[in-house]
## 1
Amino acid sequence: MEPNDPQLRNLLHEWEVLGAPPSLEERVLGKPGPWWRFLFTGYIRVPVPVGIATALALVLLTVFFLRGRGATSDSQAGVTVNLKDFRPVNEVKIRMIRGNYAN
Amino acid sequence: MTDPDFRDAFRRHKDVLYRFAYRMTGSGAAAEDVVQDCFLVLWRRPEAYHPERGALRAFLLGIARNLILKRARDERSYDPLEDECSVCPPFDVAGLARAEIVSRAVQALPQLQREAIVLAEYEDLTLEEIARATDAELAAVKSRLHRARENLRRMLAPLLETKGTVYGTK
């Protein structure tokens, strides 16, 4: 409105119109379903930095978990004993050693 | 356009579109139809909106404006879309509330003047945004606004302190 006519501007603003009625949202977007439907069809927006950080954390955790698991299984079941050069002794000499704790 | 984007756009712009459509058509039911059709267009042809050419609000208002013009043409096919009309017919203001008088005065404006004044005054669009929404030249928008104000001053003279032609007195 022209700045030199505030009177007309004020008068025009006496005609107020409210926003869209709630029924319009239902017409355009459909009826809201039960809350649990969100668990199957819902979306959430994640900011890119948060998404990248979360993905990196997941990758690191996965790598850490897999490496830890591999090391454990190596120490437990992955070691084999080679008996190729094994020779039985000819004479077994048993030698008793008495320790101090035996008193 | 994804479903969440569409929902977000609807919730942000539905009120602006509804108010504009209501003030243009004078009917709540018609305004609801216009807003619904407007978002239907956006849903079906989201590629029609180019962010580099302006805000989504102006784009949606442009769609709403075209739908309203189409409705007006369908309802009154014999009535020309008069842009040069400078004098609006008087109406009786006796017994009406001030808001009702203002409403009738705005409704009495020719279509192109009305959309210009509604977008400028009630929705605070800039001249450039109005030109984009109404697909008009800047000079044409200025001219329509000027004529709309003249008409409104004339029709609303009984409510304004300034002296002028008084309509509505018997």
## 2
Amino acid sequence: MGDDASGPSGVSTTGDREVPTPADVQVPAALAEYADRLLLSTGFHADDALLIAGGMLDPPTELKQLAIALRAGWELTEEQT
Amino acid sequence: MSVALFDLGQRLRAATLARPVPRSRFAPVLPAINPVAVMVSGSGDRLLVRAADASRVTTASGQDGLSALAELGVSVGPDLRTLVVPDRDTLSRLLEVALTTGATSAHAGVAAGVGWWAERADHPGTGAVLDVTSACTARWVLGVPPIHEREPAVWRQWLGIGDRGPRGLLEVAAIVSAGSTLPGLEAVAEDDRLSWDAFIARVADPKSRWDWRRRDSRREAALGLASRCDAAELYESLRLGDPLVATRESFGGTVVSGTLTALPSRTVVEVTLDQLACRLREQTAVEGFSGYPRDLPPALASAPLVRGRVTATRVTTDERLVVTIGDAILRSVRTGQRITLRPRSIDAYQQRSGRQELHRRYAARRSWLSGGSPPTPRRREVPLDVVIAAAE
């Protein structure tokens, strides 16, 4: 059930834990497959989406909205953590 | 698509952090009241009901399944309790057991309570039933595909809950309802209380021949539908008062943000939106607040800058969407101001008085719902707009 590759934990944050960057992380297989399907028409894959969301890759101008949406989700999370 | 991409951004973040990330700032459910958690497995004689409250775990099987709840003191009494279930399917299965419990059975009271829980579960935001999977999905996003979030076991794993039984459910219920409750949900708690009091009075009335198992009368069905629709509308409206939910919805166009670009008259304003996605159709009642979607206040918490109806939308030559709001009541607005529009907040007390009026009208002798013969159905052409509105 779910994705064994992920390392879930409780909802409380640990302030001193080093936060991994998008470049350090491999997207878990099930999520990667889902992301690939979602991004099918864009030419991007899950790893690209991770880099775009984390602000480490900029898509072409015609896909600006994709980057805006991904980053908004990613950054909203950062604001709350 | 944009909402799915926004969610994907959150899912990737959750996967990176290896923990759930918040979808809402407020707890999307009411705190459970003296909760009883139930899990159901198997069927027929092999049916197994496991239940738990704060101090005990009970188990019962087969036709005697409801005794697991009876041992925990579940009854039709003055004390309203919250049922905690892993998912909606569990409640359906519990209701099946309740429906086969005879009116003279020792567990008839428990069965009636299950019947009431099943009815209240149709009211989003209710505190009577806590569907753990739905509540968690409303509160957090996981680093998994959305379909995996439908599995209670996945939530237990991500929330670090080791107990796989009903005790574990109680732990999840406590976590998902912790913190500040979504403002406005207290009105739903009041409805729960009113509903429970009316239910137990009806069940306990020795003169009444009413049986909760029997199909609703036409009038009860109509009022029940109104009550369920009101609850769904109210919950949706309250959720937009959560800044994180409002931000997400801005990617789907339910909430839109832009600049106030024109004030053609004292009752008309034009807002030029940041993006083209907008679900606010003409004639939609809206209200506007200063700032971005994340700045939206809880529903009915403060007076909006603008209150009116969408009267027109147009796209300019430079591909900007302009929304015109007419019949507007304005409060210290100026051009150039940043504004966020949302569907007008629902007032729970207006809804309640509306239902009381329906109750009065449906009870009148002239209403076909209360005894007259039903009108003959007639088929005719329906405008496409009406079909679309009904589908929405």
